[in-house]
Amino acid sequence: MGYQYAPGQYVVVDPAELDKLRSAEEKRAIRIDRFVAPEQVGCIFHTDRHYYLLPEGVGARVPYTLVHQAMRQKEVHAVGQVV
């Protein structure tokens, strides 16, 4: 695995090194697998338990806001999992 930082120049990344860099905080992320219309989510998933997601930290505010606004405009729900 690698990352191109200039034309023809790459940094090689070892997956084991990436695992060492990941913190416990990053493991609290949510992966969105797809966006669906609200009626596509079965009633079994609409329970009395609700989760409200908010950005954590300054760096998460802009990405969270963009996703949130896009979901509201498109009137979709996100389906995913905690990673």
What report would you give on this structure?
The chain is an alpha+beta fold and 83 residues long. 29% of the residues lie in helices and 27% in strands. It is built from 2 helices and 4 strands, in the order E-E-H-E-H-E. The chain has helices at residues 15-21, 58-74, and strands at 2-6, 9-12, 30-36, 77-82. The strands form 2 sheets. It has a two-stranded antiparallel sheet with strand order 1-2. It has a two-stranded antiparallel sheet with strand order 3-4. Strand 1 (2-6) and strand 2 (9-12) form a beta hairpin. The two termini are 21 Å apart. 0% of the residues are buried. The mean pLDDT is 79.
Strand order of the largest sheet: 1-2
**DSSP strand (E) fraction?**
25-35%
Sketch the major β-sheet: 2 strands, antiparallel
Question: Mean pLDDT, nearest integer?
Answer: 79
Q: Number of DSSP strands? A: 4
- Radius of gyration from the CA trace? 17 Å
Task: Report how far apart the termini are.
Answer: 21 Å
Taking pLDDT < 50 over at least 5 consecutive residues as the criterion, the unreliable ranges are none
Number of helices: 2
Looking at the structure, what is the overall shape?
Answer: elongated
Structural class: alpha+beta
Helix residue percentage: 25-40%
Helix/strand order:
EEHEHE
